[in-house]
């Protein structure tokens, strides 16, 4: 079977393009109960960007602190229920922030029209009806959540996306000026998510000419941004990273992620580590699978004076390590891609536990 994926409806790219938000929204304002719901990273609360939101009568702005935990099913259900009760059905949702906010905007837009808890829809094509209009504006680059067809949520049982054609944004605005305030460590961890998406997409059975072209270009951009003559955070590189993030996301959509993402999901689900940081923690120990990539990622960290902790496994209990190994093992699509259809003959719970013990 070949992958048949929906792409984003419309894309604006360029510095200052945030100012187009108002005119883009006007065409949609008369839908449903004629107001927009803004979900905005709490980082921007009280900042200049908050005053630039084209908020009109009836619009609802929710600032969300994404740092305590990754988006949860409970959080999405609560947001949907209170907005419906207090304001009715929005004309659309606008998400402004990082991967967490992108996923919150995508998920809640689906849950406005699909009954019951979002836990019912974690998986592929389980969503029954199209959601409402949703528009994404990333403010940190790397996860590719702005382009992907999944909204990753952590529920009581699993960390798994609501994945279907309707998850994809109707519109994104890519304005790298919004990323200027990203601190260097987050710039590196989130950018490394793109880098790892490409390495994993490339090194596996599902890689193909289409996914390869995106990965090749995104890797070239990552190398310029993190290791080139002009490496570092600057306007030119911020533009490039925004494009690399999107291309990395498209590459994995048409291929798959691999061992690092499987391990990372375990770290997030059991220990609550954030996705991009968890990827970096895991990737540095995966020489056996991605030797050249691991060496290059370490060079990037060194160049920007970011050090990752080691010896963490000593602080984990055996039960935690086993629980993480089970989360990772239960992502067969990733192992199938990374190792091959006979992966179960090569990878056991014990193999995965040993990988965690290296961290
Ligand atoms: P995030 O959204 O959690 O944000 C990371 C940090 O950066 C936060 O502290 C945030 O406040 C801060 N931040 C964002 N923009 C900023 C700015 N302009 N200036 C200063 N600080 C800023 O992190 P992320 O790494 O972008 O996303 C991680 C999430 O994305 C996870 O929940 C993960 O599951 C999800 N994800 C989704 C997909 C997908 O395809 N849907 C893919 C990968 C990851
Ligand atoms: Zn990722």
UniProtKB/TrEMBL annotation:
<keyword id="KW-0560">Oxidoreductase</keyword>
<dbReference type="InterPro" id="IPR056798">
    <property type="entry name" value="ADH_Fe_C"/>
</dbReference>
<dbReference type="Pfam" id="PF00465">
    <property type="entry name" value="Fe-ADH"/>
</dbReference>
<dbReference type="InterPro" id="IPR039697">
    <property type="entry name" value="Alcohol_dehydrogenase_Fe"/>
</dbReference>
<feature type="domain" description="Alcohol dehydrogenase iron-type/glycerol dehydrogenase GldA">
    <location>
        <begin position="10"/>
        <end position="175"/>
    </location>
</feature>
<protein>
    <submittedName>
        <fullName>Iron-containing alcohol dehydrogenase family protein</fullName>
    </submittedName>
</protein>
<dbReference type="Pfam" id="PF25137">
    <property type="entry name" value="ADH_Fe_C"/>
</dbReference>
<dbReference type="InterPro" id="IPR001670">
    <property type="entry name" value="ADH_Fe/GldA"/>
</dbReference>
<feature type="domain" description="Fe-containing alcohol dehydrogenase-like C-terminal">
    <location>
        <begin position="189"/>
        <end position="296"/>
    </location>
</feature>
């Amino acid at each position: 079977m070949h992958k048949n994926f929906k792409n984003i409806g419309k894309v604006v790219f360029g510095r200052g393009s945030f100012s187009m938000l108002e005119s883009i929204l006007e065409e949609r304002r008369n839908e449903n109960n004629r107001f927009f719901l803004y979900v905005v990273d709490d980082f921007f609360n009280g900042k200049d960007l908050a005053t630039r939101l084209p908020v009109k009568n009836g619009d609802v702005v929710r600032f969300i602190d994404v740092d305590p935990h990754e988006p949860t099913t409970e959080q999405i259900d609560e947001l949907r229920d209170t907005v419906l009760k207090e304001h009715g059905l929005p004309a659309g949702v606008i998400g402004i922030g990082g991967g967490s906010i992108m996923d919150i905007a995508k998920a809640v837009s689906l849950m406005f029209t699909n009954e019951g808890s979002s836990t019912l829809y974690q998986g592929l094509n389980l969503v029954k009806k199209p959601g409402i209009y949703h528009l994404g504006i990333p403010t940190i680059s790397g996860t590719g959540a702005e382009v992907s067809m999944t909204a990753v949520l952590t529920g009581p049982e699993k960390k798994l996306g609501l994945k279907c054609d309707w998850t994809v944004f109707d519109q994104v605005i890519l304005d790298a000026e919004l990323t200027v305030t990203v601190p260097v460590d987050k710039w590196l961890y989130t950018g490394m998510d793109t880098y790892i998406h490409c390495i994993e997409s490339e090194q596996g059975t599902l890689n193909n000419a289409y996914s390869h072209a995106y990965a090749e270009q995104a890797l070239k951009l990552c190398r310029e941004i993190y290791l080139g003559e002009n490496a570092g955070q600057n306007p030119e590189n911020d533009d490039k990273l925004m494009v690399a993030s999107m291309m990395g996301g498209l590459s994995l959509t048409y291929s798959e992620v691999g061992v690092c993402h499987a391990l990372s999901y375990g770290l997030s689900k059991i220990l609550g580590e954030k996705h991009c940081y968890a990827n970096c923690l895991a990737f540095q120990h995966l020489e056996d699978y991605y030797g050249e990539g691991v060496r290059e990622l370490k060079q990037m960290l060194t160049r920007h004076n970011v050090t990752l902790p080691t010896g963490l496994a000593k602080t984990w209990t055996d039960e935690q390590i086993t629980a993480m190994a089970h989360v990772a093992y239960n992502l067969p699509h990733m192992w199938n891609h990374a190792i091959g259809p006979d992966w179960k003959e090569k990878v056991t719970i014990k193999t995965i536990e040993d990988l965690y013990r290296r961290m």
